[in-house]
Specification:
Helices cover 35% and strands 34% of the residues. The protein is α+β, with helices and mostly antiparallel strands. Strands 2-3-1-4 form a 4-stranded antiparallel β-sheet. A hairpin with a 7-residue loop joins strand 2 and strand 3 (52-59). Helix 1 (17-34) runs antiparallel to helix 3. The N and C termini lie close together (10 Å).
Length: 99
């Protein structure tokens, strides 16, 4: 199994999760629904961290992820959510084993 993985760790501005989540969820659903190269897009709320959201995304390859970053739904999400985000870390990797 191969694939290109993106893990994103969002640290939100205090009190913005209720506004951020619908934007994030719409982006995740559109990614899986509309992008042939997007295999998985999970949104995770870590326990005990109300201002943190994690993403786990799997694409066919880096080119599919690059295409994702140019979609209208991603660009809209990115613009609308930017004021809600205090910090964001992106980890890029290879899917080497799928359980």
């Amino acid at each position: 199994m191969s694939g290109f993985v993106i893990i994103v760790d969002f640290r939100l501005m205090p009190g913005t999760r209720a506004t951020f989540r619908p934007l994030m969820d719409a982006n995740a659903r559109a990614s899986v629904r509309d992008e042939p190269g997007c295999r998985r897009f999970d949104v995770v709320e870590p326990e005990g961290h109300p201002e943190r959201i994690l993403l786990y995304e799997v694409y066919d390859d880096a080119a599919a992820f690059d295409a994702h970053c140019r979609t209208s739904h991603f660009l809209a999400f990115d613009a609308e959510s930017a004021p809600l985000v205090k910090d964001k870390q992106v980890i890029r990797g290879a899917l080497v084993c799928e359980g």
